[in-house]
Amino acid sequence: MQLHFSPSMRSITISSSSNSGNGGYVGDLMKIKVAARHFSYRTLFHTILILAFLLPFVFILTALVTLEGVNKCSSFDCLGRRLGPKLLGRTDDSGRLVKDFVKILNQVNSEEVPAGLKLPESFNQLVVEMKNNKYSTKEFALMLKGMMEKSERDIRESKFAELMNKHFAASAIPKGIHCLSLRLTDEYSSNAHARRQLPSPELLPLLSDNSLHHFVVSTDNILAASVVVNSALQSSLKPEKIVFHVITDKKTYAGMHSWFALNPVTPALVEVKGVHQFDWLTRENVPVLEAVESHHGIRKYYHGNHVTGANLSDTTPRSFASKLQARSPKYISLLNHLRIYLPELFPNLDKVVFLDDDVVIQQDLSPLWDIDLHGKVNGAVETCKGEDKWVMSKRFRNYFNFSHPLIAKHLNPDDCAWAYGMNIFDLRAWRKKNITDTYHAWLKENLKSNLTMWKLGTLPPALIAFKGHVLPIEPSWHMLGLGYQNKTNVNNVKKAAVIHYNGQAKPWLEIGFEHLRPFWTKFVNSSNDFIRNCHILE
Ligand SMILES: *[C@@H]1O[C@H](CO)[C@@H](O)[C@H](O)[C@H]1NC(C)=O
Ligand SMILES: *[C@@H]1O[C@H](CO)[C@@H](O)[C@H](O)[C@H]1NC(C)=O
Ligand SMILES: *[C@@H]1O[C@H](CO)[C@@H](O)[C@H](O)[C@H]1NC(C)=O
Ligand SMILES: *[C@@H]1O[C@H](CO)[C@@H](O)[C@H](O)[C@H]1NC(C)=O
Ligand SMILES: *[C@@H]1O[C@H](CO)[C@@H](O)[C@H](O)[C@H]1NC(C)=O
Ligand SMILES: *[C@@H]1O[C@H](CO)[C@@H](O)[C@H](O)[C@H]1NC(C)=O
């Protein structure tokens, strides 16, 4: 932000060249004309008038600076610092008067605004009151401080409201995707071809053939599933070796089945299963899930009002955003927890690659099956050593509450975390370990302590359960963070074998990042009738 006074002091130009990372906000250029006849450089009042014109803009800036946490100064200090160098350097009268005023501002800075002080609603009103009531400079400065603090609070609150809206935008299903699901479900009942067996009966034995490459993806988003499968096939050098096991919930099953029945993936194979079709998935086998879903505290926690109860004065937008993220209903959905039951769900398979539905495969993944896991269960990318400060600096301390005695006793805060999204699992090794039981035991423990051990869904208990059973793989296999921030390095995106839109900004949502979206949309088949009729990608 720059301030410019015309030599005659008849106009003030405020231009903003600041470029905030997430979302532009300040108007580019504001020119404020100051009527010449009001100007008498000799009185303090007119200096105050200038400042009153200026301050609203400075307010916005300092409040944002404070919000973004760039500068840990009270906004009054910021004001002095920002006004200071620009104005104090002036040697003419206006500079001197502003200097006097800044001195008063600095005095007031260390004082509390009296609780009962009646604040004007706007700066216009402030100026009017100044004219009528002849406040002392100090009273004026106090009033400014009060207004400033209030405006800062308002801006904070609107920032939080914006984050809330983003959260709901991220949880809601876009119309096009909903349409796709409805039409495909309809097709299932009206079109015998959409109901055909998948894969055809003579190929069924291949579903448990361990010489093939088995992928598992679990999702209720048909479009996302189609992109995962499409991208895997198109990037593969040996598509005839690929078998996809798509797991979905009961309500999406018919639509998901129609899609893959009508869009064959030859020479690969695909199987679509609903959770209701796994005999193994009974309440007895998955006791914790039932507990998770019915625990009253949890329902409230995930579906309640997120703003009440949040202490806005000691919360930063970033920590608030991550809290919202943690409360996303997807973290209690069965589809999301399924990944811990892979050995039981696929009793005949030796090795699978488990993919999240927000990934895109850009290279042949067959070498993953050749990685020697050295007896470990889970080949995963570690998330504590990357360049990207936001996504790649996660250690156990970022996921767990180390004030909790059980956590402090069993875990090391400096242990490196790893990521879900693309993992190669050795199911044979897994079956010999006690991983699923450990997962259950800790999930129960966390429920007992009212979710004070960790907040965020499936990863933390998995970090505990897989401890000692993880083999770190090359980071270029799996690049994370495309749904978190705009600063993702596009060159790295191009080079990564699998890219992962983890975070809120999914590529199928409006809030997705435009320049990262094409890596995903290029695998959406825009000539498909269902995609066209549902106006997806338009
Ligand atoms: C919110 O946090 C501030 C600063 O930590 C504290 O002074 C205040 O009492 C807290 N408010 C509530 C309602 O917890
Ligand atoms: C498996 O883990 C559970 C929970 O941690 C424990 O109770 C059980 O004794 C373990 N079983 C074996 C065989 O290690
Ligand atoms: C958990 O919350 C419930 C109700 O809010 C409370 O009665 C119980 O004492 C809490 N338990 C622990 C371990 O904090
Ligand atoms: C962390 O654990 C301690 C001890 O159980 C508890 O008092 C505190 O509230 C927990 N913190 C969070 C954020 O849950
Ligand atoms: C993200 O960054 C790219 C290039 O760095 C830019 O073109 C785009 O407008 C930015 N988008 C948002 C939402 O900030
Ligand atoms: C896209 O859809 C059309 C029509 O359904 C189909 O003929 C074509 O093979 C599909 N292309 C790909 C790459 O799947």
TrEMBL record:
It is a single-pass type II membrane protein. Its main location: Golgi. GO terms for biological process: cell wall organization; pectin biosynthetic process. CDD domains: GT8_like_1. It is an enzyme of class 2 (transferase). It comes from the Eukaryota. The chain crosses the membrane at residues 43-67. SUPFAM superfamilies: Nucleotide-diphospho-sugar transferases (SSF53448). Keywords: Cell wall biogenesis/degradation, Glycosyltransferase, Golgi apparatus, Membrane, Transferase, Transmembrane, Transmembrane helix. The keyword Transcription regulation does not apply. It is found in: Golgi apparatus membrane. Belongs to the glycosyltransferase 8 family. This is Hexosyltransferase. The gene is LOC104234591.
